[in-house]
Amino acid sequence: MHSTWILPLFALGLSLSACGEKSEDDDGGAEDSGGATVEEVLPACEEPVDVACVDQLILDLSLHDDKVSDASVETAVDGDDFVTVVDASAGGYNQSANNPWVYVRFTPDGAERVDLDDESALESMDWDLALRRFIVRMNGGSSGPSCVGAAAFLESEYEALDAVPDGVAFAPDRYYTDDCTIVNDSSGLPGSPQVSLGSWWEYEGCVQTTGVPHLVQLADGHVLKLRVETYYGVGQDECNETGSGGDDSGIITLRWQYVL
Amino acid sequence: MSILLTLAVLTVSAHADRPTDGTGLFAFDSADELSYVDGPEGRVRVHFSVSGPNETRLADSDADGLPDFPVLVAETAEAVLDFYEESGFRVPLRESDLGLPPLGGSDAFDFYLVDFGGSADGNFALDACVGSVCSGHMIMENDFAGYGYPSLSVATSILTSHELFHAVQAAYNAGQPSWMSEGTAMWAEWMFDPGVRDFLYVADAYLEDAGRSIDRPPAGVATAFTYGTGLFFGFLSEALDPGTAVDLQEEMEGRTEEEAVDAIAAVIEGWGETLPDTWTRFVEWNLGTGDRGGGIESYSFASSLDGPVFEAVTDGPMVEDDNRFYPLAATYYRFVHEGGELSFATPDDPSGIRFALYPVTDGSEDGPLDPAVARWAPTEAGEVGLGDLPPGGYVLLGTYPEPAAQSQKIELCLGPADAVQACLSDAAPSDTGVPGGEQPGAGGDGEKEGGCSVVGTHTAPVGGLAIVLISVLRRRRTAIA
């Protein structure tokens, strides 16, 4: 069974006091198109850093330097939320290793695809999430040169998560040891690294959504709340209830909203 | 074997469930009415359901009182076992070899025909082990209804030969890495029945991703690359000796997964070769396949393969790329040379990478390749003159032919000498991707013994010239000019 967790995120995470805090000359912020207030914040980082274990990363996650995903990334407004549907199917399970990741950037106008090949993405701060099948990486730590990090809120509902709690820390992806040995999650599925956003799903015969919300801090310091709502284009509810796989796997629906 | 038997009495673990126990992912149901048939030699027993959820094909065309399909499985499996034994492999261990009772009712190797429901088609399951030496049984699809095999006999041949080779492996070491375990099993399939195309399909999958280290398959339960590594084991059999297949199993005895490449190197050395030289030959054989075959030494089945996928194909005269050369992998480029002096250059340390250049026959842009006209193994950044070459299509092969902890990332330029100099001037040394960003040996420190042939205005790091311009080159150029 794929486990969920929160403590390791805090143990590994960046300090909120060091990044993403409101600026002293904050003038009250602005309202985004989704209706939420977006306040001016300090960036979490501004310069890319070298990604460690690139050699292993390319092979372990089958990154490509000659392919750019043209998968659809579509965002709609739903009340105060954005709802973004990402086609992360990557040609299906058996072909996914031969296809590139889909790179996504969050903006006040919605999420959009960033056209990068996988190896270029390792040197780019232009993206926030990379998705392929059930793996959702963030641009930071083991996954990229930026500093996007997340905190999981196992006991909270998405709707109730409307601010950044005091003391929360945002953990970047950390799935390589110092000697570049990959750390897989506990799903038992091969090639499934322990990414910071991993608690959105469990595997009990199919990819079941947990509904666990996350706060995700972007490089510019803004924070959004995020919940993965579906992995299957058809049949997510049945998968969640019975463990029977749905259809159109890898079509990931993200519900999100800026909270800072 | 006597040692094994002694150990078995002392340390054998409890056996795993059999499908007849009704447990496990693939098992008979309590509603199944079970029967079995023994092979003519008594080496195999096939268990099947005559009624119930896992009912097998019950047609009895020869009216011998036994359903044809289980009989086909038993006869094919015994033929496979005979073949492996005659080839010099150990036979799969029996329950009694490990001190177990006859779990299938006899000491024969047990097959169970269970409905996989399309999710898989068979697997070898372990019963018990002494260390990494294990006995087991085979679970196989009950009727292949809805599967894509061209015939029941083909499906049976593939499944029995492949999975029984896992049983053979388990008699040496059941803990082999997936790429070796599946790759050698795929080659065993081919050895048993070259008439089936299963091996060719996965071999092409390997050639589609030849730039990946052979011992680092992509993530996934059953990636085609993992199985396609069988091409390398086929190469060892055809290029060195069929006995390498047995040698490798023996060499894996007592080794860990991490020592698999060491075992391969030991086998190759046992046949008087080295891993780097043998690997270089392997990736050249791969080039001589499909539509480009004929002029380069290659497999007996070379024409049935698609050939490697190129990293880049250009109709122009220049190859420019920033590539990671992974250990035990190969990268191929195709380009069209306009004729004249051809050069190769890199601003990075290319130590360990070997290159070779192959012309398309008769100066065509694409098609069958002639043997290499140049081979070089530069050890420092710089330029390598490849000589005055006739116009036509060429293929550049680059390979890092030995185990290493990291890839070698280099920018490379190949083309007319003047253009290569411009390319080299524009190119900055690549980030190696090594944590810490150190560029091992880049720029030359005067301590290296090797070097490149440098032409033009670049300072020549003259050392041991690691380029071999093959005499054929001169003869061909003269003839065409």
Please characterize this protein's 3D structure.
The complex is a heterodimer of chains A (260) and B (481). Chain A is mostly beta strands and 260 residues long. Chain A has one domain. Chain A has 4 helices and 14 strands. The longest helix of chain A is centred in the N-terminal third of the chain and has 7 residues, at 54-60. Chain A is globular. Mean pLDDT of chain A is 86; it is low at 1-35. With 481 residues, chain B is α+β, with helices and mostly antiparallel strands. In chain B, helix 3 packs across helix 4 (178-192). In chain B, a hairpin with a 5-residue loop joins strand 1 and strand 2. Chain B folds into 3 domains: 1-174, Elastase, domain 1 (Roll); 177-309, no CATH class; 310-432 and 447-480, Jelly Rolls (Sandwich), CATH 2.60.120. In chain B, the strands form 4 sheets. Chain B has a 6-stranded mixed sheet. The A-B interface holds A 50, 52-55, 58-62, 65-66, 93-94, 96-98, 180, 189-192 and B 208-209, 212-213, 216, 218-221, 223-225, 311-312, 324, 326, 406-407, 431, 433-435, 437.
Task: Please describe the topology of this protein.
The complex is a heterodimer of chains A (about 260) and B (about 475).
Chain A (H helix, E strand, L loop, with lengths): L6 H6 L17 E2 L5 E2 L15 H7 L12 E6 L2 E7 L14 E6 L2 E5 L3 H4 L7 E4 L2 E4 L10 E4 L48 E3 L3 E3 L4 E4 L5 E12 L1 H7 L4 E12 L2
Antiparallel strand pairs in A: 1-2, 3-4, 4-14, 5-6, 5-7, 7-8, 9-12, 10-11, 12-13, 13-14
Chain B lengths: L1 H10 L21 E6 L5 E8 L16 H19 L22 E6 L7 E9 L2 E9 L10 H21 L5 H15 L5 H11 L15 H5 L1 H11 L3 H9 L7 H11 L4 H13 L24 E2 L5 E7 L3 E9 L2 E7 L7 E6 L14 E3 L5 E8 L2 E9 L7 E9 H10 L23 E2 L12 E2 L1 E3 L1 H10 L1
Parallel strand pairs in B: 2-3, 3-5, 6-8, 15-16
Antiparallel strand pairs in B: 1-2, 4-5, 7-14, 8-13, 9-12, 9-14, 10-11, 10-13, 11-17
In short:
The complex is a heterodimer of chains A (260) and B (481). Chain A has 260 residues and is mostly beta strands.
